[in-house]
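go over this record:
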Amino acid sequence: MPVYGDGRQIWDWLYVEDHCSGILKVLHEGKPVKQYNIGGHNECTNLDIIKRLCSELEQHSPAADNEAMQARGCCSYQVLITFVEDRLGHDRRYAVDAGRIRNELRWQPAHRLADGIAKTVKWYIQHSDWCQAVTKGRYERQRLGVVS
């Protein structure tokens, strides 16, 4: 699991359903020409997020029971974390001021960060056939969207 740089970049994390509900709130109730930032109030480092994902995955699909992990001689998902060269111009912090959407439209995220991570991991485990279908073929787990 590649992590850019030292993994200490801080982002404001938001569960996908909350993002969608925020967009719908703006579409239905937002004022024209006003801009609304949709934020999760969940600032956390990228490294902390990947460690939380590993921990959550361990609860639902222990590494010790995973054939692919056994084949690699790995007993923990966290041992798969590798640090790669940081992206050029990668900001150390992506902060979101979601005050306008909260104050004017009375919107806020419905999910806590830990709950969103748990739901995300469960979804991917339950839909592993879909994941395999979209990653087979030309996609070889490389970073997409890179212009060389």
